[in-house]
Structure formats: C-alpha cells, structure tokens
Amino acid sequence: MSLFLIGDSITLTLLLLLILIFSYYVYDLRTNNIFRRIGMPGPAPIPLLGEMFNVIRTGMYKNDMALIKKYGKIVGIYEGAVPIILVTDLDILRNVLIKDSHVFINRRTPEGGVGPFEHGLTTLKDEQWKNARSIVSPTFSTAKLKAMDSLMNDVSDMFNERLLQYADKQEIFDIKTINGQYTLDNIASCLFGIETNSLKNENIILINHLRKFFIFTLTRIFLLIIFLTPRLGAYLGKKDCYNDRVMRWCEGKEEGEIVVGGNGQGNQTNQLMRPLGLSFDDEGNLYVADDCNHRIQKFEIIL
Asked: How many structural domains are present in the chain?
C-alpha cells in the first residue's frame, strides 16, 4: 500500500511540475513575444527579471549604451514583465517630447500606486496630472526661479570650499559623496527652506537616514517587486498603505517619535486615516491632511 502512495505522490509532483512549466511557457509567449512579433530588435529577456538583471549587474547607463551599440537606436527590452522601448533616435525623440507631447503626457511609473504615492506628482496621469500642473506651474515662474539663485550660489560656495580643502591637504576623496551632499543641500534649501549644511557636517541625522535608504534590505526587495511587477506590488502594498500616524526624528535619536495619531484608524478627533500632507502655522500648530476622513486636522504639539 505504501508503494502505491509513494508512486501516487511522485506522479502528482511530476504533474504539478509539468503544469508549472506549461504555465510559464504560455506566460513567456504572451509577455515576452511582443517585440518579436513586430520585428523590433532587442535581447532575449531573462525569466521574471527581463533586462533588470543586467541593469543591476552593470548599471543602467552602461547597459543602455551596450544595447544601443548592439541593436541600434530603437531597442525592445523588458523590465520584469513590462515591455519597454528604448529610443535614442533624435527624430523620434523630437516627436515624443515636442510635436506629439500631448500624446505622451504620462510618466513611466508602476501601475496602481501604493498608498500616498498614487497621488504624487510623478505618478499622476492624464487629467489629474493636468490639474496638478496648473496648480504647481506658478511655483516655477521666472521670478521665483531667480530667487533660488542666491541659495544655490551659497551652496556652490560651500562646495568649492570643500574641494579646496581637499586640494590643500592633497587628500583622496569620494566625488560621488560630495556631489550627493551638494545636491541634498540645494534641494533642502530651495524646496524646504532648510539649511542642512551636509557639506560641512556629514553626520547630520538626515544624511544617516538617507544612507539607510540605500542599504539592501527586505524593504528594498519589496520595492523591487513593486517596480518589476506593478500589479502584484500594488496588491501587496495596499495591505499597509493607510498610515495612521505622523512621526518626527530628533537629532541624536535612532528611533522616531509619534507626535500625532498612532492609536488606530478611525474618524475620532485624535485619529488619522491615511495622512497625505502636513504644514505648520506661525504658532507651531500642526495641520494634517487626513485623506480618508476628508478633512484637515489641527493639532497642538510641542516642538
């Protein structure tokens, strides 16, 4: 009797394996056969990863240059299961960016954004993006851009001083790190009005948290899943997209501190459901855009 059971289990395993192989074959034909059908040149995609394996291995710039050199100015590739057309032909780019720009208004973003990210400027599409653009465009007027000039000059002066210090000491330094600090200081001063001074102090708490962001962890794997398989990523992400708290990080502290919410989702005056934005008034009161409750909440907090 046991021999029959063993035989049945082996047969079932082989049957499941054959079904899995057949399913993958059908999946591969449906998703990775688009460019072959239309005769567009490009590399054979790696199962599940597409061209992302080579991007991670050699870097996006080097990989794109290698593809262009081998296949020409128009290349069909896959990012995971998503078909992507890599275009370097100037005439086509001119049509996409200028002549036919009204057709290509959407950015290349994962479908089904997760949580607050689905309302971000880089993920909005079609009419939603047009409405947001009409609101944001005055921020980038000529006068306001000129007002940022002095802020950027101040950061550039610190950047030059840092380079001169290395030159005087004849030290070897990492130019990528210095350029990153230069970029961070410009963004912080122009967008948020904050003097981070990361060019003078590399140990500020913001720098430390940014470094943690680029450490490869399970969270990074989750973000990679969202990028490679947008629908699956959206499904997984929506399970935890309703943040119900506002936190702050203080200098010298490793863990964040909850200042608002964190006591469950609900519509009570001390609860939040999916906060999307916040601001302060002159008296230090915190205003939180509580998306799912369709309201703006005011909180008195100790800064």
From this structure: 3
The encoded tokens of residue 273 equal: 């459901």
Residue 57's Cα: distance from chain center in Å? 19
Q: Are 81 and 226 in contact (CB under 8 A)?
A: no
79: left (phi over 0), alpha (psi -120 to 50) or beta: beta
Task: Say yes or no: 95 and 12 in one domain.
Answer: yes
- Give the domain extent around 37: 2-116
In contact, 118 and 112? CB cutoff 8 Å? yes
CA 144: distance to chain centroid? 27
Domain assignment of residue 209, yes or no: no
Whole-number pLDDT of residue 119: 65
How sure is the predictor about 240, in pLDDT bands with cuts at 50, 70 and 90?
Answer: very low
CA angle at 251 for the pair 191 and 265, rounded to the nearest 5°: 75
pLDDT digits over 112-155, tens only?
454 555 666 777 777 777 888 788 788 778 888 888 888 899 99
Residue 221 — pLDDT band, cuts 50, 70, 90? low
